[in-house]
Amino acid sequence: MNHVPERWSESVQLPDMWLDPDQDPRDTAEPDPVGEQETYARYLRDYRLTLELKCEGLAPEQLARRSVPPSTMSLLGLLRHLGEVERDWRNWISDGERVAPIYGGHGADFDGVRPEPECLAQALQILHEEQHATDRALANFADLGQRVGREEVIVRELQVHRIEEYARHCGHADLLRECIDGRVGQ
């Protein structure tokens, strides 16, 4: 890569921040969560929002760009991957038939990325649908120490794993975004 993008920020108050603090959708007037489940939900919500903020303002071609060769990872691929992962988490806690993968076999979530508006719209729609479906399924388990599904996953462990997955991929998104246009994380 010969072209090194200039670092920039839309923030007018604090130039090293991604957003002005008063425009950050993660900063709400809500009181701090009380209780384990509420804390997990808040962290997960904030990481989900962070990932989408990292993708905001880019064209499908930029979102599909594999910015760190030889990796197949792209921002659009991350959106697709996390939709796939949400579905798979439901398979972990289900006693019924496994739901088929969305995009196909191993790596298809990243390999099938196309720099087209339709691919982006589909990825976001699937991601949101799968997030809501997993949230609804997990809401059925009040006891976070309960073992559920064929794999007898402990609900608490799955909740922490969900947060970890989004947090790790937000780190990837920081690097991918910086390679695309120089914009750095907050």
TrEMBL record:
Name this polypeptide is given: DinB family protein
Superkingdom of this protein's organism: Bacteria
Organism annotation: Glutamicibacter halophytocola
Record InterPro entries: DinB/YfiT-like, MST-like
Region (Disordered): 1-36
